[in-house]
């Protein structure tokens, strides 16, 4: 069992370097273990967030997987909402104000901003990492770079199934 200490967020470059180091040490090869631990790691260390978790591609839709926060939407169509848009475009979605995002899906009314990073392995979409915040403009380009780096650690350290059944 690892001991977890708080990581100072005031210097985001240093914060994400330390977070990545902790994620590297925490990673296992099993996908379901990593999704659970990575969502807990982010919930523990990222300030001002109210939800963090993963949606996995299953039968051409995103299905809720490991998360930290209030109960969430269980299924999201590809192309719908922020998560579905990230899945369709294979591009990170950085949303300063979710109320201004066309077709935003409200799972937690407290969420005001959001970032969604697609999980891509060998050119194939596995799912998305979704992080919500109860404040506007919570995430910036440094968070985007840091979370994309975390997703790369997750992708590289994990043995992924051909499909999620």
Automatic annotation (TrEMBL):
A GO-annotated cellular component: cytosol
Similarity comment: Belongs to the free Met sulfoxide reductase family.
GO molecular function: L-methionine-(R)-S-oxide reductase activity
Organism: Bdellovibrio bacteriovorus (strain ATCC 15356 / DSM 50701 / NCIMB 9529 / HD100)
Superkingdom in the source lineage: Bacteria
Protein name (Swiss-Prot/TrEMBL): GAF domain-containing protein
Ranges for domain GAF: 52-152
Entry-linked InterPro entries: GAF, GAF-like_dom_sf, Phosphatase_reg/MetRdx
């Amino acid at each position: 069992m690892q001991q977890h200490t708080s990581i100072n967020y005031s210097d985001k470059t240093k914060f994400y370097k330390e977070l990545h180091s902790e994620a590297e040490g925490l990673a296992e090869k099993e996908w379901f273990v990593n999704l659970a631990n990575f969502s807990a790691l982010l919930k523990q260390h990222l300030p001002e967030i109210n939800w963090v978790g993963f949606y996995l591609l299953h039968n051409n839709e995103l299905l809720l997987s490991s998360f930290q926060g209030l109960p969430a939407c269980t299924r999201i169509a590809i192309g719908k909402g922020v998560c579905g848009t990230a899945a369709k475009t294979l591009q990170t979605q950085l949303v300063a104000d979710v109320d201004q995002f066309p077709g935003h899906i409200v799972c937690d009314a407290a969420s005001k901003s959001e970032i969604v990073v697609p999980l891509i392995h060998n050119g194939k979409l596995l799912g998305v990492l979704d992080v919500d915040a109860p404040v506007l403009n919570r995430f910036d380009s440094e968070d985007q770079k840091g979370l994309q780096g975390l997703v790369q650690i997750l992708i590289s350290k994990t043995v992924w199934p051909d499909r999620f059944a």
